[in-house]
Specification:
Strand content: 5-15%
Number of helices: 20
Number of strands: 20
Structural class: alpha+beta
Radius of gyration: 26 Å
Length: 694
Amino acid sequence: MLSPFPTFRVRLILCFAFGGWAIQGNGQSASYCNQAKKLVKTIESFHYAPHVTDSALLNRIAENFIASLDGTGYYLTEADRDALKAAPTSLQGLMEYGQCDYLQKSEQIFQQRCSDLEQLLLQLETNVLNYNQPDTLFLDSTQAAENTTDYSERWKQLIKYRVWDSYFSDFDTLPSAPRPTGERMAVLQRNVVSLQLCHLNNLKDSTGSVGEFVAAALLDAIATSYDPHTTYFTPLEENVFEDALSSSRKSFGFSVSINAQNELEIDRLVPASPAWKSNRFNVGDVILEVRTAQKTINADCSSWHELADLLMSAATEEAVFVLRKVDRNKAEVKLIKEEQEAEDNRVQGFILDAGKRVGYLYLPSFYSQMDNYQNAPNGCAHDVALELLRLKGEGIQGLVLDLRNNGGGFLMEASLLAGIFLDYGAMSLVCTKGQAIETLKDMNRGVLYNDPLVVLVNGNSASASELLAATLQDHHRALVVGAPTFGKATMQEIMPVEAGSKELSTRKPEGFVKVTTGCFYRVTGQTHQKTGVIPDIILPGLNRPEDVREQDLSGVLTLKPVEKKTYYYPRPELPVEALKAKSASRVQHDTVFQCQLQVAQWKAEQEQIHQIPLYFDAFQRYYKQNQQPRCGSTRSWYTVSNPAHLRGLNSISESDKEMNEDIMIQIKNDPYVGEALHIVTDYLNLEKLLPDEN
């Protein structure tokens, strides 16, 4: 199975108030130390390209561990970092023999620094900072505090920044923001400090003790040092993850985890669930607020357990979710719980009509729901095929397959889906540890859909999405449109931490590890690892400068092209240059796309900001100059409708009707769907001018 989401998990620092709390006992530490030894054994046994335990690996583990504990550069001092880096021998002893010296030392350092932070924040609840004095916040996560005094000053500057940001965010227009009173700043400071203390307390819900948090962070740092997609999961994380996705109860159909910014981020969607069918939820979206009849949760200070308790409660039948999408825009989505039915078709198609009828399919992930692959296929390829047959019955002349924000899934499903559009032959090359390169072939002769096809992708299209896009591109079967994809060409499997040791038994696993066990190549022998699949036609604004892609990750694997004799039969080349020129002309004169270019430039400029002034006049200028340009929606020049089998059905609930209308409005106002429709239309018009191949 390919990783369901391309980015790797980073554990942001989450300290807590220490009253009545303590580091875990020696017995619990010993358990984690023993896990570390088993973890390394499992990774070395199954990893596609395991590292030798040398100084380079040990240094990388220490760096990953520090980044995991202190990704912002505010929680550890320089001396703390040096201490964590200066113990390669004890770290090696942990990995090879389960010795606990390194872990126990790390726990002591971390607890002391969290205790210092707690005391400082408690003081700042009553001691108001001086907001009239010129000050500056320096943004450099690689630079730690030199000493405890510097540590305190850096935190005060961070609090000041959050207070000023909170103050100016209350005004729609900056000229209307008067100089604040001391009383107003005191209230805002108490709110900011209270929120930070709330974040500290949330660790109790996640792990139970500072020792367990540090141990889990260290085990994950060991795993990600082999490559960024090899990650560790605690049993609690795995249990919450699986329970949230259970199909045996009514649910909204998604699970969440805490991301690197301490936010509640959606990490998986259940096919055919309310979240899936809404077309508004994506892996990587951040939950900002949840409103139910019982209560409202502001995600600024909520643990994933608090959210899970509310959403999984039998009393919660519906909820309104405020999301921050991957493009940083906000969306408000109402969902009503449902029980997932096995026979539900998980893929819904629409008809786009602007003189020519074009089908539209959105696929959030590559899922598989089967007990026996050869006898009972029931995954996304099957569902796409079923919906395509319905769309063909509507007389569609072309198709837009939307893979934006599709983080991957099952490799075989991507292969089967490609076979819907290809006749036969090789589609990809697959490499697994200790095995010869295998050719992944389309074993089914015949094509289900043979008309013009556009595949929409962006930087969050990863893994299986990239395999499908690359296969269709190499066969000249589809025009790939959008932005370069994520660049992940590796495969992972989840297994118990003990899988590589002789101690594996039937008892409950102590933890889990997702291990990179193989990779895949384009049918040409080339790789899109790190570079991504480059679209035939690139559209502006889909990839943001701040987005993380495979090439940006620490320890990413490098794959070299391979040579293997394969047989594949590409069609004649598509008229890419002619279609690209027509698209470029439209984009150049389209105000929405030109605004997207301005947004991209603005975001690139934000990446260059390394210091922020912390007094009224200067911060007001900074705030005004750094407001993101707002782009309007595209002109609705085409209609969006349901296929005939969905029109007029009395069995559709009112909530589903409302959701369906919302989806159609979303599709109609999406400039990238509109441009994809233009490209399909251009292609159909060009086809009339081309000589018949027969």
